[in-house]
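Handout, section B. The chain below has 545 residues.
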Amino acid sequence: MSRFFFNDRKQLVNDAIEGLVLSAPHGNLVKLDIDPAIRIVARGDWDKSRVAVISGGGSGHEPAHAGFVGKGMLTAAVCGDLFASPSVDAVLNAIVAVTGDRGCLLIVKNYTGDRLNFGLAAEKAKRYGLKVEMVIVADDIALPDNKQPRGIAGTALVHKIAGYAAEQGKSLCEVRDIAQQACNSVFSLGVAMEICNLPGSEDDESRIRHGQVELGLGIHGEPGASTVDSHNSKTIIDTLVEPLKEKVGEARVAVLINNLGGVSALEMALLTKELAHSALKDQLAYLIGPAPLVSSLDMKGFSLSLLTLNPVFEAALKEEVETVGWQKPVAFAPLKTLKHGKIHDSVEATPSDNPRVKALVATATQTLISLENRLNALDAKVGDGDTGSTFAEGAREIAQLLAQNKLPLNNTAQLLQLTGERLATVMGGSSGVLMSIFFTAAGQSVQDGKALPDALLNGLKQMKHYGGADLGDRTLIDALQPALEALRDSDLSAAITAAKQGAARTATMQKAGAGRSSYVNKQNLDGVTDPGAVAIAEVFAAIGQ
């Protein structure tokens, strides 16, 4: 089954180009309207007063190449079909459209189709009296003995340096020489654990085995030079860094950390951390990325490109551009930390005695403990079968503190807040946090001078706010809210009645608006009281006896 969003396979690249131009943040891109088969994205603000810089190639490597069109980088990009070089006519039209008296530099990745099509277009353009030069990027070091190394992510660095030179007003020969120097100074190596998915492809097979990564595979999914039996981030970074460091020696470098399209932001961040602690750590001057710059659709992989620095390259990298895809370099520095004292959030409570409160707490906790099996049985019908155990666990903790005379029974605010603190620790799941919010907020309200019924209602308000449930959602709120309101407006007897009636009403509610019961169909809910509401009703009934 295809794993690719698209409408019309034949229009896929054209559709993507339209989306790119429409969303360009600087509003400076245009698609040249020449022929449906010719796809050229160009600067809308270009006046031919400087050397034009053109690149391109097959689509599927976004943001390369059209994402690098804009002031300070490319003048135009010629887009082929997916992983297919643009035609000679397309390249020629791009050259003629944007080249003035200052001439044009073509930046081409080292693939046969790109070299031939861009090269022939350059020769044809000379017939129009245009000055055209070409540099070829061959930064891939995966196959040391290959006489024709591939052009991969380092191409973006050449775009940036050549674009800077052109923007400075340098001559065509100067721009070409600086670009060629950049080509000679950039080295790249990539790795992937999954190859990319092509639109419309039904092939779910991958040649890369589970638990392995392929080292040095191409940006079109070409097989790599070797495999590594590890997904460990440090091991993989070290594997890439070793041959790259051999190429750059001890030189200061900028490193482009390129997402090949399918690696999560979290993984790219931790790979960057590993790079910062690698054998290159003392040579790193700038980080570019992590980000997709020269991708391979959704390939689950990444590459590192190292550029040995000189003053011109450093200035070029730091110069601002107006493009969609370029990432501003970050001067490398060790992790910045700021010392801060740890907050030990514990309730300061002094144990005290109050026989009446002690009896209430004992009754409430023993009631919940005794209800464990009954509540679990109810919850098994409408939830995950653990409500009784969850409430009983919290009750046992408070009962134990009571037996050890560790509760501030004569200080209501402290008692509520300490109860909230302990429930958050010992009760599992969301129930513990919700009850902790209830008691903590209520305790704070008592401390602020509110009467106990009003304080408990404020605790309920905060529990509803953070938990998202409300009256009628078939939760313990359906018993607790009417009980607390009756306690405030009348007395404990009225609260007991209200809690009992509220719990009973949950049996007639055929749709739960919150909690695990919200995933259960109405047939299973019909006639079953909510276990949390039953717990509330039983506690109120017990303390009223």
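Note. Residues 429-447 form the longest helix (19 residues). Compare this with the example in section A.
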